Amino acid sequence: MVDESDEAVMGSTSSEPFSMRRVLKEAVGNNVSDFKLLVLTVHSVVLESEFVRIDKDSGMAVSCFDLLDDSPSAFTSMISLRYTLPEILVNGASHSVNLKFQTLGHFVSVCGSLSDDTGSRLHYICLDRRKYVRPLELMPANSESKGNVNDEEEIIFGKEVFEICKMVKDRLALPVLIDLCEKAGLDPPPCFMRLQMELKLLILELLPGVDLAKVASTCSELRYLSTSNELWKKKYLEEFEQGETTGWLFKDLFALSWKLKKMLKGVPFRIRSGTRSGIAGLFLLNPPF
């Protein structure tokens, strides 16, 4: 019988939302501009928040393929994208939100508001190209090369990706989602999801590592929230209390260590001295694999 905790811990250890990885992989492959890369990043986080992009004239759902267009006529410094919710689209209603992107020197500003209410609240973020573009360009390659846990640069850039996701989610996607639900007469997002990310992370910090992995497997929102390397470092040290901890991606390390711990139950083993950590230095007398 398979232990559900094993399935949760040994499941996907990716630190980024699936939609973002998929969209950015196509963007990097198409060699899009810095501006478009940031637009696509915001777009992917908005999709993770259950929005659907629609055409502003027809109101029909559309893909992001036009955003990947690298022709001279494609947008270069300004664009507006419109989104709605699946239930609004199914009901044939016209309520939606509009996101306006504009280049301001090294920065890209993003303003979000209800598209059919001129008096609605305006939500705003500003993204620094110099800070976020390089980490976003490296993200698809990093996601495909798991196991390179000694790469300090990957950890640093992972923090930048987490930061931009946090900013878009907390200050743009969630506020316009609440406004749209109120306008359309829909139930607001679940109470937990409406909390600021700092509060959500404080709650997640109280969970044991195995329970954190289970929570992360329930939906894209919680999977995204449980990507902090510092959070998983804390869970790793709480669970295993050993080993050098410099230069690791701790979500992957926790999964590896948990797997070895399960394998070694009841199996004689010895630890060779002089290795990077106790986990890395385990040599089984009767290896089960």
Automatic annotation (TrEMBL):
Lineage here is: Eukaryota, Viridiplantae, Streptophyta, Embryophyta, Tracheophyta
**Every F-box domain range:** 198-237
- This protein is called what? F-box domain-containing protein
Which Gene3D superfamilies does the record associate with it?
1.20.1280.50, 3.40.1000.30
SUPFAM superfamilies recorded for this chain?
A: F-box domain
